[in-house]
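Treating backbone geometry as a discrete language has practical consequences that deserve illustration. No coordinates are needed to read the tokens, only the vocabulary itself. For completeness, the protein is quoted in full, as a sequence line and a line of structure tokens:
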Amino acid sequence: MKSNRNNSSQIRLDAFNRILDSLNDRDSPVVVEGHSDTLALRSLGYHGVVIELNDGKSVLSTVEKLAHKLGTSGIFVIMTDWDRTGGRLAKRLKEYGESSDLVPDLRVRRDLSLLCSKDITCIEELPTMIKSLRKQL
């Protein structure tokens, strides 16, 4: 039984590491909901540009700032939580991004949701989940 759990933990850790590596290999900013999400990503080893939505500005204002910074056809990664609020924010970011001629990327959010949704629902809980998976090995 323990060996199956170890194997499952290793598979999930490997999948997470692939997601994190692909994120670090890109030159696209990552949009998160708040500061605790930024701290979580940094603690996991993400070193790229992070833009926080909960900075007192509207979602549209954040996307307009991105459009100005990235230019047309700029890609940005949407990494909101996979709860109801995060889903709504992701939808708005996608719509506003596309209407600003940007390319919103939801793939990382989807992959993390598939990998983690049975354990956690938000980005800020990722370090705890990863630590738990490592302990199981």
In short: Strands lie at 30-32, 50-52, 75-78, 103-105. Residues 33 and 85 are 10 Å apart (CA to CA). DSSP finds six helices and four strands in the chain. Residues 2-25 form the longest helix (24 residues).
